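Recall the central idea of this unit: under ordinary conditions, the amino acid sequence of a chain determines the structure it adopts. In this exercise we apply that idea directly, starting from the sequence alone.
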Amino acid sequence: MRTRPALFDLFGDHLRSRGGRAPIAALVRLLAPVGIAAPAVRTAVSRMVRQGWLRPMRLSSGAGYSLTPLAARRLDEASTRIARIVRAGWDGRFDLILPYAPVTRPEAAMLTTLGYGRLGDHAWVAPRPADEVDAMLAGARIRYERFSAGPVSAADLARRAWDLSGIGRAYEDFVNAQRPLVTAVTDRSSDEEAYAARFELVHQWRAAQQRDPHLPPALLPPRWPGTKATQFFERHAARLRPAADRYVEQCLVGAGRGGRM
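Accordingly, the structure predicted from this sequence is:
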């Protein structure tokens, strides 16, 4: 597990709702159960400060860090976008973006995260428009045209634009990899063990969401593995949440008392 994405997951899943701040000692302690050592945490935090994601601050317990407005907005936008997609229906039309030149790898990754699939070097398509895409393309200085279109064969276009078989296999792999980890946590397990299992579950789930365009059910193959994976994730994330929350509070309180991490 890479340290910077783990820190984003930690802030997004646990610390955003607790004011978006924490002592460095607590950050170190909270990433230790998932195998990230203190030097790696401190290095990643320093890098995120330089990149504008975190800002240093003085807490009553000592040195700490908080989310910048940019980081808080990005975390909120990601959560809101996925929630909005899950709730939204589909009107049978696609959002079509035609860049005047092939986009670079970073811009392609951002379009993919926003739910767009590639239809060749000069066309990207999504089943619904992403509010952030215009600002993203303008910021990257990419000239483009944008249309709304309803193809004759929507399912065929979806198969061309997205590797649905690959995304489905990734969901199956997610469930197969996570099942032994989360089911090993029982009522006799410690809060730290529950926290570590849930952290890994959420971390891998968020990675899967970046690849999934969240297509309407009408465009998905029968017996879509993502449905089963979603049910699996929601069930175990909720089951492990109380113990994980207790462990987070324990770490935050311990750091506030000046405990050594």
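The mean pLDDT is 89.
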